[in-house]
Description:
The chain is of the alpha/beta class. It is 46% helix and 14% strand. It folds into 2 domains: 8-210 and 300-324, Spore Coat Polysaccharide Biosynthesis Protein SpsA, Chain A (Alpha-Beta Complex); 228-297.
Amino acid sequence: xxxxxxxxxxxxxxxxxxxxxxxxxxxxxxxxxxxxxxxxxxxxxxxxxxxxxxxxxxxxxxxxxxxxxxxxxxxxxxxxxxxxxxxxxxxxxxxxxxxxxxxxxxxxxxxxxxxxxxxxxxxxxxxxxxxxxxxxxxxxxxxxxxxxxxxxxxxxxxxxxxxxxxxxxxxxxxxxxxxxxxxxxxxxxxxxxxxxxxxxxxxxxxxxxxxxxxxxxxxxxxxxxxxxxxxxxxxxxxxxxxxxxxxxxxxxxxxxxxxxxxxxxxxxxxxxxxxxxxxxxxxxxxxxxxxxxxxxxxxxxxxxxxxxxxxxxxxxxxxxxxxxxx
Length: 326
């Protein structure tokens, strides 16, 4: 099968997935070898607490095309993806989850669509199989992205994606610790496409995403890549102010809105609650922005590589613990 693509890098963020890595690498190799002979598989271990890194090292001895790195602490899935993408040597990057829910056999569909002239192709599941809570949270986060970032493609986004590697130059200078990889892609191109793919049920373990982590990702996405929350807080404050003024006028001017000499106590209490709530929301949003600016000002890293295996001249992360002298 000829795609006109010279070299493909498959980036896999790894976290507590020792049980699935061998099968994943075998299936990736089976798919990629006849499809794109020049390929590499980059496994980025996000400081797993199981023996995932040991499994990566073993696999690197068996598969010459496999490269691995382990991060110094758990930075998050999107940070791990960014580390792998910056290290990739292919002219096309494919990102795949480590749990086998993204079938490697669907990769040719993404690459075929990419050769039609698109910059980014998402593999959108025909039927998501995360479970109803995770599926609902996924839909909610996509809705937030569409609302706050104004990105019409948001409903189609997926961690199963293929894109042209040169897009990374558009966010090469990004150094903030909070990363949303899809938002970064939206900075540099509008040439997106989505193709329907299968989504396999999870057969080993359970998702590492919990409600708290999904909520944290939604907040990161909203406050790191858009000023819309601040605008919404301003609008909410204006509405609350107008509502408070109307209630005050009604309480003072309309007969029957006060009794026994006490002027509209329920309305005054409601007014205080509305205004106080709007102020607290605005302060919380401002705090999120200030906190992200603070972490950026003190140089909190997006990731730091502790160790690597299978390193070649073309594939070398910019900074490791050894390079920093730690």
